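Budget justification note: compute hours in this period were largely spent on complex prediction jobs such as the one shown. Inputs:
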Amino acid sequence: MSIIREKGSKRKALGLIAYMVFVLLPIYWLLNMSFKTNEEILSGLTLWPNDFTFDNYITIFTDASWYMGYVNSMTYVAMNMVITLLVALPAAYAFSRYKFVGDKHLFFWLLSNRMAPPAVFLLPFFQLYSSVGLFDTHLAVALAHCLFSIPLAVWILEGFMSGVPREIDETAYIDGYSFSRFFITIFIPMIRSGIGVTAFFSFMFSWVELLLARTLTSVEAKPISAIMTRTVGATGIDWGVLAAAGVLTIIPGVLVIWFVRNHVAKGFALGRV
Amino acid sequence: MNKTPNNKAWWLVLPVFLLVAFSALIPLMTVVNYSVQDIFDQNTAYFVGIEWYQEILQDERLRESLFRQFGFSFAVLAIEIPLGIFVALTMPKQGWQASVSLILLALPLLIPWNVVGTIWQVFARGDIGLFGWGLNSLGVDYNYTANSVDAWLTVLLMDVWHWTSLVALLCYSGLRAIPEAYYQAAQIDRASSWSIFRYIQMPKLKGVLVIAVLLRFMDSFMIYTEPFVLTGGGPGSSTTFLSQTLAQMAIGQFDLGPAAAFSLIYFLIVLLLSWLFFTTITHMDKDKS
Amino acid sequence: MLNWMAWTQPTALFFGAIALILISMTVWEIKRPCVERKGFIPITTTRGDRLFIGLLSSAFIHLIAIATTEVSLYWVLGACIVWLISLLRFG
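Corresponding output:
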């Protein structure tokens, strides 16, 4: 039996490695290009930069209009994460513990917002945020992204919270804890991993989204993804800088996933396994 | 789990309700208002009734983009779901290999969508991209900027690259929840690996697979940024999907009325589909308990 | 400030009617909580579910009517109201 298993696992490993190569190859190519000069990129195909250079990165880090894009993106992503967690935690608790009028419909309505195409909301969003004076602020993008990150956050947190036995709540109330004290000192620490995973998902959505972020900003809060379209200049596309900017947008994601790597498997099933 | 009836729980949900209502209801109402008017500027608008709906529903271009969208979404599901299950089955269960493969798998999910487009734009080019150059030097006539079939396949391949990981990670977490004792029992019974898959792993995967299908279908249904960067919808309109058609109307031509009517139809289709999925999920949960 | 939302009388009436239905359904639900049951729809549903199904299907009936026929929408609206009520009662 174990022999058959080993043979099978070798073939399995090969399949997995093949897939990983498929995943990594395009990223490798971007990384490779970001260290090349434009002349080398355009002159022909090289698997490794002959003329290794950091110039593309230096361009980005010395030009405020470039690096401010990263700062802007980070700002609204962070705001989105904080807002999402603050409002989603109590709501998820209510969904996981209580039955109330219209609960299922409310839940579905929330979820349907996650499924709605951002393009549908594009125009009115623009006008809504202009009319309340939020246009071109980080808050506008954060709020717009909340529409999509909150439903998912509630869904994930509800899954994690349902895994915590009710007896814990009841014992705490009998011991004289108030709701807020119980929630903050006992309950939240118990679903730490769920909160981490939720933060990860809010980060993920807000960081990768472009359409809304681009429409709701013009100068002050312009995200990096919108700035990247600038590399198309009079002389054609500045491939090297474009690649370097792309590589820099991947790094925050890698850092975030490193922190939640042990919980991410459960989180991906929305706490439902 | 038994839930206690308590209408005071509404207070806990209120912040979410208000926030989402602000960002969802007001825009939705505005879209409805726009869809029945011909709008020139802030103060000049004429009521036109259902004219825009008639125009949109009989528009060839939109119908084509709707069919293209369904075709794309089904192709995405047909490839990504089996491939995702396969990857999840091959992933190591513990140790550093598990961590490494988790991180590598999650990598494409955390790249901004326009950068995904950029990566493939570069990667698939015949002159400076490894993939395009490789195909060309193998003798395959491949050029995604000129040939619409190539463009379509490139967008599909990009989506597979981008999102199969999500399916794989979902299935992986489903597989991890199977107790080791099940496998040991199967080993004693000398079950084949197919019957292990069929009778032990598949039932456990069903729950997560519905979520995977839901998320993948809905997200591919609103795909915008990646093809926009990669092909710009071309050549011709071979890779113009629904969201892009809509964005072109709304921002490009600023046709508020038709764009709003189109938005509503788009939204209703999405609402119907997500209701179908959601009902399936809740009924499966009920069967379990 | 509300100018940009471009309200018109028909749409205002439409949203008013929806809001009224939602409020009265909520009051009804609080006064007399409903039990899930199975009517001619193949799944068990609550009142709220049937309302949602009714509204969504009405929207699609309108769209199909616009796309394929020249019928006046008042007829379609009337038909949809009958459909909605029968769905709530027997669905």
